[in-house]
Write a structure and sequence with these properties.
Layout: H1 3-14, H2 25-29, E1 34-40, E2 46-54, E3 58-66, H3 75-86, E4 91-96, H4 101-109, E5 113-123, E6 126-134
Parallel strand pairs: 3-4
Antiparallel strand pairs: 1-2, 2-3, 4-6, 5-6
Length: 137
């Protein structure tokens, strides 16, 4: 399976259809200052991915997903840390479903703090928690 196909398979499995980028992934990756990072094992198998955009002011993490068999093994942590090192911005931001306890715990461990609630972000009645991490200049 190609890396592109593996990323799309992880995307489809990790997110509900309404939240999935499956149909728009190629267009999203063509946006200016957008980066796709993939975690792969020694055989080249994609374990997970992260999509972020960057500027001098902020790095915004848009998507993080890890294949089921590789969850809870530090893959997402490594991906987020790599994104933060990739481009030094003043801060990093992300939006997360407040019901996603695993993601909230991960981001808190990495130093992200809550920075507000975005009502109806995912859909009517489905907010997103905005989180921010101040980075050393």
């Amino acid at each position: 399976m190609s890396a592109d196909c593996a990323v799309l398979a992880i995307e489809r499995h990790s997110f509900a259809k309404a939240d999935s980028w499956s149909s728009i992934f190629p267009a999203e990756l063509k946006r200016r200052n957008t980066v796709l990072l993939c975690a792969v094992d020694c055989s080249g198998k994609v374990l997970g991915y992260l999509v972020f955009t960057f500027s001098k002011l902020a790095t915004h993490i848009s998507k993080v997903a890890v294949a089921d068999p590789h969850r809870k093994r530090g893959v997402a942590t490594l991906l987020v840390q790599a994104a933060l090192r990739w481009r030094r911005s003043l801060c990093a931001t992300l939006h997360v479903d407040p019901a996603n306890a695993a993601a909230l715990a991960l981001y808190a461990r990495l130093g992200f703090t809550e920075d507000g609630l975005l009502t109806d972000y995912y859909a009517p009645g489905r907010p997103a928690l905005k989180m921010v991490l101040e980075l050393a200049s």
